[in-house]
Write a structure and sequence with these properties.
The chain is of the alpha+beta class and 192 residues long. Helices cover 42% and strands 19% of the residues. Strand 1 and strand 2 form a beta hairpin.
Amino acid sequence: MNRSSTIINRLIEIGRILWEENLITSHGGNLSHRVDEKLILITKTGAKLGFLKEEDFTEVPIKADISHYPEASSELIVHLAIYKNTKAHAIIHAHPPFTVALSLKLKEIKPVDIEGKLTFKKCPVLEVKEATASLELANKICPYLSQNPVVCIKGHGTFAAHEDIEKALFVTSAVEFSSKVFFLNQLIKALL
């Protein structure tokens, strides 16, 4: 099995977990992973992350002109910027509902639960005019991901960038769990 096949098999498993944990919609989110210093694998546009197959991925050079890769995820511009400007080897873009809901009201999501505090200090919430697949987002997100393992785009979703896809999954899941705990805590305070 070659390196790309090994990575694809890991990404297929990660996509299934994202789906089972309700961190994505049926056709939402995207995954990518470095193959080497010059090449990444990324999910194709419209891929169903919970049910990925090998043909749902495409290889793209890190220095690619995105117009030459229309089959790649629409977020390709953001993934490439992250790889060029951070130490990331793997990226998960998800749409965790509680985190997205909180992003509409908060400037950052700080964990109130113990597991969250052990996993991330904060999840900054970035506000951009074009929250999807934009050069603006690509330029703005990198400094935040250099300091934080996960960032939420207001009203859109999270980007987790890490040296390992499993760790990107862990922090994505932890942010959503922390968001649920925060939300439920606020609800309990309002009811009591």
